[in-house]
User: What shape does this take?
Amino acid sequence: MRSRPAAAAVAFVLALLLAPADAWPGWRTLSARRAPERVPGGLLFRAEGAVVSVTAVSPGIVRVRCARGEAFGRDHSYAVVAADPPSAVAVETGTTRSRVATPTLGVEIGHAPLAISVRDASGRLLDEDDPARGIGLAGEALRLDKRLPEDTHVYGLGEKAGPLDKRGRRFGGSALAMWATDVPGHDAATDPLYVSVPFYLALRGGVAHGVFLDSSFRSSFDVGKSSPNRLAFEVEGGELDYYLIAGPSPKQVIERYTALTGRMPLPPRWALGFHQCRWSYVPEARVREIAAGFRRRGIPADALWLDIDYQDGFKPFTWDREQFPDPERLVSDLRALGFRTVVILDPHPKKEPGYAPYDSGLAGGHFVTRPDGSVYEGSVWPVNAKRDPGPSVFPDFSRPATRDWWGGLMAGLVRTGVAGIWNDMNEPAVFDTPSGTLPLDVRHDNEGQPSDHREIHNVYGMLMSRATHEGLRRLRPGGRPFVLTRASFAGGQRYAAVWTGDNTADWASLRGSLPMLMGLGVSGFAFVGADIGGFMGMPSAELYTRWLQAGIFSPFMRAHSHTGLPDKEPWAFGERHTHLNRRAIELRYALLPHLYSLMEEASRSGLPVLRPLVLEFPSDPASAAVEDELMLGSDLLAAPVLVEGATERELYLPPGEWFDFWTAEQLAGGVKLRRPVTLESIPLFARAGAFVFRQGPVQHSGEAAGQPLIVDVFPAARSEGVLYEDDGSSFDYQRGSFARRRFVQSCVAAGCTIEVEAAAGAYATPARPLLVRLRGETPRRIRLGADELPRRDARQPDREPAGWNVTPEGVALVTLPDRGQALALRTER
Ligand code: MIG
Assistant: This one.
């Protein structure tokens, strides 16, 4: 039976009219009440009970802001550092639609409901609000619904468990919250975790854009969960204030996002070494034993960590003098062995008159209060002290004067020689509230506009790490600070590295750590790592070794353990595994020059060091969901073994030409491979054209000076690589004292040319041998400039300072003295 066309049309129109109300109970959709007004950078719309502005903040970033009432409140952000003045913008206003356009982004705004669509310069649709819903109001909450096309992938949202693609797989999608939470033993289903980054990157057909919701209130993201083709986000208070960020590549989105929220500062080089931690190494004799344990076994390491038990009754800024009678001596003795000391500082000084941080904090009004003005007291570690247990008070890190005060309290630790600070429990975690954190009505300064914990909770940890970072900068002006934090927020990459908290010693946690770390990287946090070996519980020897082998590729590489467990150091799993573990850490140290160069790049571009494949291959559909492999920079692909008892590793190589890093076997990409593996295997692949910068064996990062610089070159028609070096610890690089060197390769049928440019910058690299390893082919002849390079006698290598030979493994190895000069090698096939 056929219905009459007119009736069908009426039914269709009716359905359209009724649908929004039906589908959106409890929410009121905003519509413009009159023509928009011009404001700097864009347009302002007035709706029933709310205002909405759409403004360009840079050619590639448009800001959409919605507030209740007749006008916006204070324009303030803990995340955004560089909002440029509104840039060149074209504005058109119409009766039903208006437009705000930059040279990169065109935003069309429908007036009723207020809903936008975003196109790039070529007119391609990037993003679109649900045209029937747009922005909704309900109680204190504000919400926005966007369309989520079937083929869109969603990455980022900070520190999240589960799949790399936040669209999710199970249950049709993900509902993810931003609310810093202490979650010991988290697993793939745990949400939220400690860090809140309300930023995502959407990728569709190889074209990316980003959305950053700049709200510190609790927010939620429904990524295709309640409806597979919708992405909705909601804030529980304050404004709905978000930025649309142009690509078109995912890397450009991340560069723009981190231009807005800041980038990781270059860390000291030692912080890229291996860190050994445990809850807790006490007394000091045990710390010395651990240090000696590394050196005796020749296992490289750079830092030893002191967890809460080094303190007197868990009071920050104190030492337990029975267990640590002379901390200064301990720290300097460790330093003489090449170890830095990092200590924990939690945000909960004990309420104890006579304890200086409590007294000065109280006098300075530095602690958060209840609504009646009394200082809030809660139970955290000091309540478990053996002597005089008691409650804690909580610094208000949202008050600038409090951040300064807290920073100054570290003077003693800095004088003791402590090299870095570890901020834990800063969600903040509280033992005696049902929520596990501060009550929502606790008062905060909020940088001069008093507010409550609902608004500050998510930035509390970041602001603590900011106070710590800024304090270290003041106390030790010449040295780069090292801070590790558990909780943070968008922009927190400016202050501290992040570790993923209390994971578990099981295989699922090892596998889950990869997408978690890659998601953090996409979200602006380049300096990240997970507890190697797993924090809760005891790993098998095999799991520990596999975790270490994967951990080599984490920018922050630290092994840690819960209290009360057997020894978990790299040598605690028997002789065979000690050997395997040493080899893994040695590879990490060998790669330090490469890693440091990538970290320097990250400090300027915001691009992560540990990358999901999709960042390098955004147009390759098969790369989109790969989460058990990673890219270290753009040239190395690691496929760590993540399965118990594995005898082979199935892996995917993206399109292009590849080499097995170990054997230089040439492999065609765009396919899945199966590679046999043993316990020793660390499957690693180099893109054709890769330059891999390495150093010889060391016991700690301080031993590198004067060591040979080793460069592995994998042939390609044309490629380049960049090596970055500096003194590794000071800020002199900001005044030109660095050495940045470009390596350029071009190959034709007859052979390859490898040009090493003279270093740019004023830092003089130490005189050293330069070892160039030509991988994947053995030439007949090699020239240095115009002259043929002599063959070296591998048995008496020092006879010929410059020359080449073929190593026993069959690698053509060129040895040259290096003083940072330019040089050119030509090979003849
Ligand atoms: O309530 O300081 O995530 O790394 O060892 C536990 C003791 C407190 C939690 C941290 C963990 C640390 C532990 N801390």
Notes: The chain has a mean pLDDT of 95. Residues 106 and 123 are 8 Å apart (CA to CA).
